[in-house]
Structure formats: structure tokens, C-alpha cells
Amino acid sequence: QVQLVESGGGLVQPGGSLRLSCAASENIDSIDYMGWYRQAPGKQRELIAGITKSSSSNYADSVKGRFTISRDNAKNTVYLQMNSLKPEDTAVYYCNARKQIRAVVFDYWGQGTQVTVSS
């Protein structure tokens, strides 16, 4: 069981920046894939950024060039640096850890952190 704790959300003006953190309860180099999802009111949860054990990353088109995902294995923490924030980035942001053991995939979630972009 992997426990994830997000932090760093808050209220920011358009054009501003925030950095989210996701602290894991175990070594993240044992986790196949870690991702950041978000869910806005009335919308489905969507994957916006992810990073593999080998630090290969991927991004949703909506955040590409503005958000950067990174990992610090020594701190068992994954970060999401969010720049040039827009009102449409307002959502609850969730950290996800995915492990595959043989043919079984295990997904773990944090409790979420609110990001509000507003003037």
C-alpha cells in the first residue's frame, strides 16, 4: 500500500506559479509510474503529467510548455511546477502512483489539493 500526500495548492492570480509536491510512503524508484491528475467541477479527472522510473515524462496538450513534472528519489517526492497559470487550470489536483506486479496494476491516490487561479 502506497500512501501519497499532496501539498502546495492554493489561490494564485492568472500568470502566477505554484509548485505541488507529492510525498510517497515508500521509495518512488520502486513505483513504475507517477502522475498528476486534475478534476474541475463537473468534469472528469484527467491526466496532465506523468513520469516513469527512468524519468521519461509526458504531458497533456493543455499544460505542455507551462507545467513540469520532476522527481526526487532521495526525498520520495514528485513535484509539479506550474507556471503561467490560467483560470481554466482551477481544479483539485491528485497525485497517482501506479505499480505493476506481474499482470496486475495497482493504483494509489492522494487526497487531492485545491488549486484556484483567479484575480
Which helices and strands occur, and which strands form pairs?
Layout: E1 4-7, E2 10-12, E3 18-24, E4 33-39, E5 46-52, E6 57-59, E7 67-72, E8 77-82, E9 91-101, E10 104-109, E11 113-117
Parallel strand pairs: 2-11
Antiparallel strand pairs: 1-3, 3-8, 4-5, 4-9, 5-6, 7-8, 9-10, 9-11
Task: Characterise this structure.
The chain is mainly β and 119 residues long. Helices cover 0% and strands 55% of the residues. It contains no helices and 11 strands. It has strands at 4-7, 10-12, 18-24, 33-39, 46-52, 57-59, 67-72, 77-82, 91-101, 104-109, 113-117. Strands 2, 4, 5, 6, 9, 10 and 11 form a 7-stranded mixed sheet that branches. The protein has a 4-stranded antiparallel sheet with strand order 1-3-8-7, with no helix packed on it. A hairpin with a 2-residue loop joins strand 9 (91-101) and strand 10 (104-109). It is globular and about 45 Å long. The chain starts with a strand and ends with a strand. The mean pLDDT is 96.
Task: List the keywords.
7-stranded mixed sheet, 11 strands, 4-stranded antiparallel sheet, mainly beta, 119 residues, single chain, globular, 0% helix
By DSSP, the count of extended strands is: 11
Low-confidence stretches: none
Mean pLDDT: 96
Percent of residues in beta strands? over 45%
The major β-sheet equals: 7 strands, mixed
- What structural category characterises the helix and strand content? mainly beta
Encode the helix/strand succession as letters: EEEEEEEEEEE
Q: What is the CA-CA span between the terminal residues?
A: 40 Å
What spatial form do the alpha-carbon principal axes imply?
globular
The percentage helix is under 10%
**Count of DSSP-assigned helices:** 0
Radius of gyration: 14 Å
